[in-house]
Write a structure and sequence with these properties.
globular; Aspartate Aminotransferase, domain 2; 7-stranded mixed β-sheet; binds glutamic acid; Aspartate Aminotransferase, domain 1; single chain; 3-stranded antiparallel β-sheet
Length: 395
């Protein structure tokens, strides 16, 4: 009956990250010892002080619809967070809380992009950006980068990609999947180009802000000439180990925030009230409280880089943030491994799943067909087992 479905859904690709995670889960349920390194999901428990805030909220009978754009006191905590961590001044009417940063991004794209307008995506980019743009009937336009520039684009590349149809650019630092982090001066150089195009908006996805191993995080909206046309997206999932709680938010010009609230009011309403109460505890706490997770990710990063560098055919940059490595595996493309011809990075990811029983994600979905993404948000024991298995499977 799928021909009765809309073209919209028939043409929509499935999320590659979620599809791989589902496939790994299914194989596991069938008794296969799969090591899942596909999903960007911290393997820590949500810290107790956040869980306790949720339990209190249940006991205090938080059970009614919440305001569509989020509780007033949560929005104030978000304003305080933006000031404390990013030196950004947002007022309450510039904040919208959503069901995960994914919904925050979808809201922004829906309210800004008209059919036929271009949205620039800096490749490699997170898999859902292009699908979200396509759903809004916009054109996702890739600006490519690769390992030779540490997966970053130059101002000239940005300039060359802009046309009179360009409406929005989505930037993401620390980056999923490459782990690259733009410095303040690199962002200022990109902003210089955008200053000549006042009709282009910027969505800055900063969800990995705290998963950062050295280069100071810099918010694009901090550049004075960009503040009025930048939408800063963030959320609780990654830094606070709260992926399933689904809390994302934006800081944006108030007219954009208002439009996102209108959009959300017709689709999901206010996000889960218990998760919102817990989010206040998370955001009000000192960032020191989550540092133990960042330190553990840092040491896993060292481990996985060292192990992957010992495998012939894997070439990788040193990620400065997030919890992924994104090796270039073009060495294997065109080769035959155990009788199977590897034509692209999807073939390679499937090969690893079937022969090493390790779930990764193919770079195709991120706009980088020579790479695969491996998440190190997993225990060291699993990282060691997984990379040993990969080594054996490709040797
Ligand atoms: N953002 C995470 C990832 O890239 C979670 C899965 C998803 O929503 O794509 O793995």
């Amino acid at each position: 009956m799928s021909n009765n479905l809309s073209n919209r859904i028939n043409n929509l690709p499935v999320s590659a990250t979620l599809a791989m995670a589902a496939k790994a889960r299914e194989l596991k349920e069938n008794g296969v010892d799969i090591i899942g390194l596909s999903l960007g999901e911290p393997d820590f428990n949500t810290p107790d002080f956040i869980k306790n805030a949720a339990i209190e909220a249940i006991n205090e009978n938080y059970n009614s619809y919440s305001p569509v754009d989020g509780y007033v006191d949560l929005k104030q905590s978000i304003c305080n967070k933006f000031k404390r961590d990013n030196e950004l001044d947002y007022k309450s009417d510039q904040i919208v809380v959503s069901t995960g940063a994914k919904q925050s991004i979808a809201n922004v794209v829906q309210v800004l992009v008209n059919p036929g307008e271009d949205v620039l995506l800096v490749a490699p980019y997170w898999v859902s950006y292009s699908a979200i743009v396509t759903l809004a009937e916009g054109n996702p336009i890739e600006i490519r980068s690769d390992i030779s520039t540490d997966f970053k684009i130059t101002p000239q590349q940005l300039e060359n990609s802009i046309t009179n149809k360009t409406k929005l650019i989505i930037i993401n630092s620390p980056n999923n999947p490459s782990g690259s982090v733009y410095s303040e001066s690199e962002y200022v150089a990109l902003a210089k180009v955008l200053e000549n195009y006042p009709d282009i908006y910027i969505l800055s996805d900063e969800i990995y802000e705290h998963i950062n191993y050295g280069v100071a995080h810099f918010s694009f909206a901090k550049i004075p000439s960009m503040y009025d046309r930048t939408i800063t997206v963030n959320g609780l999932a990654k830094a606070f180990a709260m992926t399933g709680w689904r809390i994302g938010y934006i800081g944006a010009p108030s007219w954009i925030a208002k439009a996102c609230t209108k959009m959300q009011g017709q689709i999901t309403s206010g996000t889960n009230c218990i998760a919102q109460r817990a989010a206040i505890a998370a955001l009000d706490a000192s960032v020191d409280k989550i540092q133990y997770m960042i330190e553990e990710f840092r040491s896993r990063r060292t481990l996985i880089i060292k192990m992957l560098n010992e495998i012939e055919g894997f070439s990788l940059n040193k990620p400065k943030g997030a919890f992924y490595v994104f090796p270039d595996i073009s060495y294997f493309i065109g080769k035959t491994l155990k009788g199977k011809k590897i034509n692209n990075s999807s073939d390679f990811a499937i090969y690893l799943l079937e022969n090493a029983h390790v779930a990764t994600v193919s770079g195709d979905a991120f706009g980088a067909p020579n790479n695969i993404r491996i998440s190190y948000a997993a225990s060291k024991e699993n990282i060691v087992r997984a990379i040993q298995r990969i080594k054996e499977a490709v040797s």
